[in-house]
Amino acid sequence: EVQVVESGGGLVQPGGSLRLSCAASGFTFRSWWMSWVRQAPGKGLEWVASIMPDGSEKYYVDSVKGRFTISRDNAKNSLFLQMNSLRAEDTAVYYCARDRAASDEGGFDYWGQGTLVTVSS
Amino acid sequence: EIVMTQSPATLSVSPGERATLSCRASQSVSSNLAWYQEKPGQAPRLLIYGASTRATGIPARFSGSGSGTEFTLTISSLQSEDFAVYYCQQYNNWPYTFGQGTKLEIK
């Protein structure tokens, strides 16, 4: 059974840092693109970042470029999101999702339950 | 950035009736479009990819159509479990972008 489980969320002050983790199981993690998608309270979905299977290419939404870094450890079936210089507008539930970018199918087919990041003083 | 616009924002439909949701892209995304269903407290679920292909396990009452800039999600006979928020998403260009969502509510 495919599973992705996020962790690492919490309350952080503006300007602070946080590192999110996503543990994947049930599929060949090293063969898949992976992504982070977030949802601010009461708002819609926003794609944040994606990473190629071997980690050689990464893409970010403009609002997080230079502040967030997506990475992965294929040996440990894990995805990460290092978030620095956090702002109040980064407050959201962050989802880890399997991304079918490498296939002709597309879309995010498996999602975790999300981890809440709250940026507030 | 490709802007995805969904309409209407809220759609009120009776159980058993048909629901039609629209999604428009600010420029062509070919058929690289997905639809998701989101229920309170749950992660989004992939319904449709490639504009018209149902994802694994998705009932046949869900169908997608369109290409280029105009897309439609149709739910042929609404069941109680279908009342939720629906999002479209393009994956033709970076950055990936989502529509703002359509809330499907019981009439």
Could you characterize the architecture of this molecule?
The complex is a heterodimer of chains A (121) and B (107). Chain A is mainly β and 121 residues long. Chain A is built from no helices and eleven strands. In chain A, strands 2, 4, 5, 6, 9, 10 and 11 form a seven-stranded mixed sheet that branches. In chain A, strands 1-3-8-7 form a four-stranded antiparallel sheet, with no helix packed on it. In chain A, a hairpin with a 4-residue loop joins strand 7 and strand 8. The termini of chain A are far apart. In chain A, 42% of the residues are buried. By secondary structure, chain B is mostly beta strands. Helix content of chain B is 0%, strand content 50%. Chain B is built from no helices and eleven strands. In chain B, strands 2, 4, 5, 6, 9, 10 and 11 form a seven-stranded mixed sheet that branches. A four-stranded antiparallel sheet of chain B has the order 1-3-8-7, with no helix packed on it. Chain B is globular, with a radius of gyration of 13 Å. The termini of chain B are far apart. The model of chain B has no long low-confidence stretch (mean pLDDT 96). Classes of the chains: A mainly beta (121), B mainly beta (107). The A-B interface holds A 35, 37, 44-47, 50, 59-62, 95, 100-101, 104-109, 111-114 and B 1, 32, 34, 36, 38, 42-46, 49-50, 53, 55-56, 87, 89, 91, 94-101.
Topology:
The complex is a heterodimer of chains A (121) and B (107).
Chain A: E1 3-7, E2 10-12, E3 18-25, E4 33-39, E5 45-51, E6 58-60, E7 68-73, E8 78-83, E9 92-99, E10 108-111, E11 115-119
Parallel strand pairs in A: 2-11
Antiparallel strand pairs in A: 1-3, 3-8, 4-5, 4-9, 5-6, 7-8, 9-10, 9-11
Chain B: E1 4-7, E2 10-13, E3 19-25, E4 33-38, E5 45-49, E6 53-54, E7 62-67, E8 70-75, E9 85-90, E10 97-98, E11 102-106
Parallel strand pairs in B: 2-11
Antiparallel strand pairs in B: 1-3, 3-8, 4-5, 4-9, 5-6, 7-8, 9-10, 9-11
